[in-house]
Specification:
The protein is α/β, with parallel strands linked by helices. It contains 22 helices and 17 strands. The chain is globular. Bound molecules: 6-O-phosphono-beta-D-fructofuranose (F6P).
């Protein structure tokens, strides 16, 4: 692929975001509406939940509990339509496989991974569904994944002693771990319970050791997932896993060792050379993907192999269909009814105009326990940037806020931890509440109580409790016990409200709905990156730490190695550690 295939217009320098008339109009509007309370907004417009509501694909986005008016929405949508930003062109360019990841000269085509087989996706002369970069395309690799998943699930994949595989260990980190690990938790009811599936990411030996605890090596298969196959954590864990396996198999010859590795190790990577160097037969036991799939956008590729084994090919296809449905929603729906676009604009409204630097994602579903961790990489590795993608001379860096800090925990656990700050703290943290009408776990009235809590929290955050309401309540109940007068107690028990949230609902947490939910956030993040003028698809910010770690390793490992020239703080810390190892 030639760099000339860049769409030059996409990268034409653009004015600073803060100098756009559309931005200035939003600033002026912000000054007018910033003090409006959600109480007022609902009082003057009781039906606003009918308008600030999008329902499509079985998903609901209720965004009425946001500090917006019709005018705010109009101005935000005008920002999205700003010709020099060119959001529509960028969306089109992504789906058409243009090389929009400019700093790495790559296309960004995670949407191709879930494109139906029957719908050709032609990029630079190739139908990616069948062929990509001269090798197998999306669907031949999916066939390979499904065939493998079937063999393991049916007990046909045998270990070195002839026993069928019963344990699957995914070794990977970042995008090569968070997606499958999160989705495995989310879709537990769909997994084959006869298999034990675990995920190892941390270089801390505790992670691998605990994951292997109690497992029979003869029944254990490792999936080594690494796009580059050079990531220190993954390769270190993979090497130790290989040693663990070979210690148990104790092969007599080199050939027997290779056979044992072939039965117990498969790789998912774009780097066949490094896979072979590790000792995995790349022609038989490697699942490929392509450099146009970013690590954090790779769940639908072979990176989801462990998940495909756990939930089976049919459920994995449902997941892909869910992703694709949201891709189509994003590509085709007008911005005003486009869930990713609306979520993105609301995020910008709070991040850039109100100046609130973080937002919380609060799934009211224990199965989504890892969802926020997954979104942290998706959002913060994508938009935690300062360099502009289309700078004007002398303005290479943004002087506006970009990616927010994302955090959260499943409800109701969060309620008993940090919700105090959400309700009464000095910081305002907009939040996304996610819930499902039905649960897979029919246990007494647990699910009703869970949903009641979700609804109660969004209501409490938005409307709070006024002085009058509280005074009436306390005078009825009395304030005895605290030793404080009613007047003294009131400020401590007031709820200011006016804390915005979105509520996202679906019928059930099934593979298709999980796919829709993930794609919703993927596209939201992309829209924000385009508006903020950053490249959402590189991650140069993780490199420096990696370089310094490899510089430090010899000195940590061996006390005789000279201390590298680093600042006095790092040197003293290193010396302190060395004396105690
Ligand atoms: O943390 C940096 C990063 O490159 C992520 O973007 C990526 O998901 C992760 O490391 C793992 O990379 P790889 O799949 O190449 O091992």
């Amino acid at each position: 692929m030639e760099p000339s295939l860049h769409n030059q217009a996409l990268f034409a320098p653009r004015p600073k975001l803060t100098e756009l008339p559309e931005w200035r109009r939003l600033q002026a509007h912000y000054a007018e509406v910033k003090r409006l309370h959600l109480r007022q907004l609902f009082a003057v417009d009781p039906q606003r939940a009918q308008r600030f509501w999008i329902e499509d694909l079985g998903l609901v986005l209720d965004y009425s509990k946001n500090r917006i008016t019709d005018e705010t929405l109009r101005l935000l949508l005008a920002l999205a339509e700003t010709p020099t930003i060119g959001l529509r062109d960028w969306i089109g360019a992504m789906f058409a496989g243009k090389r929009i990841n400019r700093t790495e000269n790559r296309a960004v085509l995670h949407v191709a991974l879930r494109n139906p087989r029957t719908r050709p996706l032609l990029v630079e002369g190739e139908d990616l569904m069948e062929q990509a970069e001269g090798g197998p395309g999306v669907w031949p690799v999916l066939d390979q994944i499904f065939e493998f998943a079937h063999r393991v699930r049916a007990g046909l994949w045998l270990g070195y002693s002839g026993k069928p595989i019963r344990n699957v260990i995914n070794i990977g980190i970042g995008g090569s771990d968070l997606g499958p690990a999160m989705a495995f938790e989310a879709l537990k009811p769909y997994t084959d319970r006869r298999l034990t599936v675990r995920f190892v990411s941390n270089i801390d030996g505790a992670h691998l050791s605990e994951a292997l605890h109690g497992l029979d090596p003869a029944e254990t298969l490792f999936i080594i997932v690494s796009k580059t196959f050079t990531t220190l954590e993954t390769i270190t864990n993979a090497q130790s896993a290989r040693q663990w396996l070979l210690n148990a198999a104790s092969p007599k010859t080199e050939e027997a060792a290779q056979q044992a590795i072939a039965r117990h190790f498969v790789a998912v990577s774009t780097n066949a050379e490094q896979v072979a160097a590790f000792g995995i037969d790349a022609s038989r036991n490697m699942f490929g993907f392509w450099d146009w799939v970013g690590g954090r956008y790779s769940l639908c590729s072979a990176v989801g192999l462990a998940l495909a084994v756990a939930i089976g090919p049919q459920n994995f296809q449902q997941l892909l269909q869910g992703f694709h449905a949201m891709d189509e929603h994003f590509r085709t729906r007008p911005f005003a009814q486009n869930m990713p676009v609306i979520l993105a604009l609301l995020g910008i409204w709070y991040n850039n105009f109100f100046g609130w630097p973080s937002y919380a994602v609060l799934p009211y579903d224990q199965s989504l326990a890892r969802f926020t961790a997954y979104l942290q990489q998706l959002d913060m590795e994508s938009n935690g940037k300062s360099a502009r993608l289309r700078p004007t001379p002398g303005a290479e860096f943004v002087d506006w806020q970009t990616g927010p800090i994302l955090w959260g925990e499943p409800g109701t656990n969060g309620q008993h931890a940090f919700f105090q700050l959400l309700h009464q703290g000095t910081k305002i943290v907009p939040a996304d509440f996610i819930g499902f009408a039905q649960s897979h776990y029919r246990l007494n009235d647990h699910h009703s109580k869970l949903l009641a809590n979700l609804l109660a929290q969004t209501e409490a955050l938005a409307f709070g409790k006024t002085r009058e309401e509280l005074a009436a309540e306390l005078s009825k109940a009395g304030s005895e016990g605290s030793g404080m007068s009613l007047e003294e107690l009131l400020p401590h028990r007031l709820f200011p409200g006016n804390r915005p949230s979105n509520t996202i609902l679906a019928e059930k947490l099934d593979p298709a709905n999980l796919g829709k939910l993930i794609a919703l956030y993927e596209h939201k993040i992309f829209v924000q990156g385009v508006i903020w003028d950053t490249n959402s698809f590189d991650q140069w910010g993780v490199e420096l730490g990696k370089q310094l770690a490899s510089k430090l390793l010899p000195a940590v490992e061996n006390p005789q190695t000279p201390i590298p020239s680093l600042c006095s703080s790092t040197q003293r810390l290193l010396m302190w550690l060395r004396k105690r190892r």
